[in-house]
Amino acid sequence: MNSKIKESFLYRLDPRTKMLLLLVFIIVGCMIMDPFVTLGLLVLAYILYRTTGFSRRQIWGLTKPLLLAFFLFFILTFPFAKPLPGETIYFYLLPGNHVAVTASAVLSGLASAIRFVFFIWTADLITSVTPTGDIVLTMNKAKMPPEASIAIGIAFSYIPVLKNEIGTVIEAQKSRGASFESKNPFKKIQAYIPVIVPGLFISIVKGREIARAIEARGFTYDPTHRTYRKDIHLVAKDFLVMFLAVLFAVVVSYFHSKRGWFGTTFIWNLLTK
Amino acid sequence: MAESIIQFDHVTYTYPGTDTPAIRDVNLSIKEGEIVLITGPSGAGKTTLCSTLNRIVPESYEGIMKGKVLIQGKDISSRRIGEMAFKAGMLFQDPSGQLTNPTVEDEVAFGPENKGLPVETVEKLIREYVGYVGMEPFLQRPPQALSGGQQQSVAYAAVLAMEPEIYVLDEPTSNLDPLGSDLVFELMKKLATDKKKTVLIVEHKLEKIIDMVDRIIVMDKGAVVYDGTPDEVLRHYRELRQIGVVAPQINQFFTWLNENKHTHLTQAINLESAAKELRSALPAQLPLEQMKKTGETFKSFRKFDEPIIQIQDLHFGYVPEVEVLHGITLDICKGQFVSIVGRNGSGKTTIVKHFNGLHQPTGGKVLVKGRDTSKATVAELSKSVGYCFQNPDHQIFSSLVLDELSYGPKNLGWDQAEIDKTVDEVAKMMGIEDLIEENPYNLSKGQRQQIAVAAILCMRPDVLIVDEPTTGQDPLQSRAMMDTVKRLNEEMGKTIVVITHDMSIAAEYSDRIIAMHMGKVIADGTPREVFAQDELLRSSNLEAPQITRLLQHSGIAEPTVIDVDEACRLFEDITL
User: Fold this and answer.
1) Which residues of A touch B158 (CB under 8 A)?
2) Which of A128, B88, B121, B161 could be stapled to B117 by a disulfide with Cβ–Cβ 3.0 to 4.6 Å?
3) What is the pLDDT of chain B when averaged over all its residues?
4) Residues B144 and B197 placed together within one structural domain of the fold
5) Residues in Cβ contact with B204 at an 8 Å cutoff, skipping those fewer than 6 apart
6) In Å, how far are A125, B107, B358 from A129, measured between CA atoms?
């Protein structure tokens, strides 16, 4: 992680503020059905990424693998989006007048797809600017048992290790003539069994090693009275961010429930009236 | 006279689900400040014995424990692991399996934090011990992003920060390359001399630590079979070899000289003192002509001239900005047994991953049986080049050995009759026909490794790449694995490419050694030709076998001996 990110406003917030921010993004993202407003949220997330110090290349690196899922989210909405009363049907996707393509279906599909990217972006952004140790401290403040918070902390630290192990398993199976390129999703899943099984086995072995290692470091000495070298404190900027985040959620919620704003065709209707 | 700090009083322990005790009737007394080496083959009970000191055995496993373990005169049978962890600090084999915190600093703080020490004390301990192992520049780095040697140094600092009375170092270098091992051995020596603590070291690589231990305990099948000073124990090198403990080459050679040449050499504990001792026993005028003649009778290496893999000006980088292979040109010949040696990061694995297409050159070409690898898929190349990964658990996934062996041929589209025939032949050849209906996960690691090799052989490749077959193995297991590979080479005519750190193994089995350093080939020839280049090897942080270096350091540059047997033959007709 570059030093610019570590010095950014977002990185220096208390982890509880960042968790609240993520929660607000998720709630607001779930309430807004309009693709144009959702796109606005995505732009907001992009601005946050960039001002925090992430490069365009890093953001693209995260987004590129999501494009297939973006397309699937878009296309799979059509069978479920029934035409509104009196709505123009442009054409049907399948013969026999099945799966109608309408303005509301397109908008709904776009909203789902953009929302998916928005959720991934915000989750990635917040977890990238929150050190694992801070997550453990947040859970301790929330009165979680130390055994649980340490276990979650270890799980985060082990993601890169397991990623490396899985990479080696894939290379080992490729060397035995395995192919993971099938277009058929069922065949693709089947092809991955020789990767998943060793992956699970290695995870279990590692899990046992870790359990033995933390016991040998005295973790069971007195977990409830162990020292936490670092502590977290809420300061003025945290309260300000929390206030703005909650206000944002309340405002969106108010207009959504009382005025019926942010439905699928909210901006579309304004534009086409 | 120092007090006894550890006492094993008729200790027997049996793991749950088995009837055979892992350790049986162990009676030992270890004095405060003693540095003890515990060695023996895999499964001898070394780790189990050490794990009784912090109560991981029996508390984490249950099982049946008999007898008493006393630390500082007190029976610890009613103590908990959390408490004993601060009495007996334990460093394990695999560095990545014991680093659980997000940064180096957090890792070192973990033990003291668990003890509930004040924050200022924890900070002081971090500073002291991170400095002690020389890891200050990496304080904020995730331990998982460090090299193996650095990771083990961090784990070491984490144990030191707990300030235990007893240090148990359980094969701390077995998963490391020579550079990482040297780093950890240096730290172990530092601990032994600075701290005056009781240290128990479980280790197979005797030659690296023999000069720092006061006592050697050899275990076999759960029992203590030898216990004494290094001199007392190592003179039984032949008996030790029978149970899978290989004494350092200088000790083997000195015992031979004392027995056959009636010298009175004291068992040297390191290369420098051994060379001095040997020089004092040599005649003033060495019979150079006679030695040269004896050298002509030494093992000669097979010659090959039909290339099967051709590497032409190979360049490669994982990212465009950083090149890791810098223009390598060489041929691997049909039927040859080649060892590629070099430290971690020298490019050994990177180069061989080009042979089966896992990597594609960024410049130059690799031809396998005349075919350009850039124009073939990994699956196509796997018909000619089999790649056996270091850890069999990276490839085994089936619930039956039979299915595991059939997986590769099925991927290649063979018909069932052909698959059955090949699996049957390979299973017989590897001596695993009785295991064919077994679940691989119920077998030992050594058997799983055999199955991993058999699974690759079932694809009938002409070339077999074996990646670090001896890492993490005891000498007996290493030898069994290498004997299997040698048989494939001699009986089936397979071309063998072994990646290894172990120079003695490379010397014993190979026709040719390719030494790599920083993405370049620095030496390429028969083991004798490569080991003769002592200066060059040392400049690249590589070391010829200990016996080769002993004679070179004693002024016998020619002929170059590559094993103890040759050294003995060289001295057979010389009067000392």
Assistant:
1) 217
2) B121
3) 93
4) no
5) B39, B171, B174, B245, B246, B474, B475
6) 6, 20, 34
Cβ <8 Å between A215 and B60:
yes
Say whether both B46 and B15 belong to one domain.
yes
Residue A185 has pLDDT above 90, yes or no: no
The mean-pLDDT minimum among A183-192, A252-261, B260-269 falls in A183-192
Cross-chain Cβ contact B386/A215 below 8 Å: no
Question: Per-residue pLDDT for A1 more than 80?
Answer: no
- Verify that B81 and B208 share a domain, yes or no: yes
Distances (CA, A) of B412 to B383, B419, B458: 8, 10, 11
Instruction: Record the tokens describing residue B235, joined without a space.
Output: 């003179």
Paired tokens of A178: 């395995």
Label residue B72 by pLDDT band (50, 70, 90): very high
More confident residue, A136 or B464: B464
> For B410, which residue in chain A has the nearest alpha carbon?
A177
According to DSSP, residue B51 is labeled: H
CA distance B573 to chain A (A): 51
CA–CA dist B513, B506 (Å, integer): 7
- Across the interface, of B115, B378, B397, the residue whose CB is closest to A174 is B378
Shared-domain flag, residues B35 and B105: no
The proportion of chain B whose per-residue pLDDT surpasses 70, expressed as a percent, equals 100
Residue written as token pair 């350092």: B248
Q: What is the DSSP letter of B301?
A: P
Contact criterion met (CB below 8 Å) for B277 and B265: yes
pLDDT of B497: 98
Question: Rg of chain A over CA atoms, in angstroms?
Answer: 23
Looking only at Cα atoms, what is the longest distance across chain B? 74
Question: Do residues B184 and B271 share a domain?
Answer: no
All residues at 6 or more sequence positions from A255 whose CB lies less than 8 Å from its CB, including other chains: A261, A262
For residue B402, give both structure tokens.
């039979």
Examine the pLDDT at B28 and tell me if it is beyond 70. Answer: yes
The answer to whether the Cβ–Cβ distance between B85 and A216 falls below 8 Å is yes
Q: Are A248 and A28 in contact (CB under 8 A)?
A: yes
Q: Both tokens of residue B170? A: 């359980």
Beta-sheet pairing, B198-202 with B166-170? parallel
> B13: distance to nearest CA of chain A, Å?
18
Same domain, B83 and B127: no
Length of chain B: 576
CA distance A209 to A10: 36
Dist CA A169 CA A196 (whole Å) = 9
* pLDDT score recorded for residue B1: 52
Question: Which pLDDT band, with edges at 50, 70 and 90, does A190 fall under?
Answer: confident
- Is pLDDT of B562 > 70? yes
Range of the domain at B265: 252-281+548-576
| Beta carbons of B394 and A165 less than 8 angstroms apart | yes
Going by pLDDT thresholds of 50, 70 and 90, the confidence category of residue B10 is very high
Question: Distance, in angstroms, between A39 CA and closest chain B CA?
Answer: 34
pLDDT grade, residue B267 (50/70/90)?
confident
| Amino acid in the structure at residue B333 | C
Minimal-distance CA residue of chain A relative to B413:
A177
Same domain, B574 and B467: no
DSSP string, A211-247: HHHHHHTTTTS-GGG---S------HHHHHHHHHHHH
Measured between its terminal Cα atoms, the distance across chain B in Å is 40
* CB–CB contact A168 B98 (8 Å): no
Q: Do B180 and B83 fall within a single domain?
A: yes
| Beta-strand relationship, B4-14 and B64-71 | antiparallel
A175, A219, A222: best to mutate for the B interface, most B CBs within 10 A: A175
Please tell me which of the candidates B117, B144, B394 has its beta carbon nearest to residue A172: B394
Which residues from A are below 8 Å from B114, CB to CB? Answer: 217-219, 221-223, 226
Instruction: Name the CA radius of gyration of chain B, rounded.
Output: 25
Query: Phi and psi at residue B333, in whole multiples of 5°?
Result: -95, 155
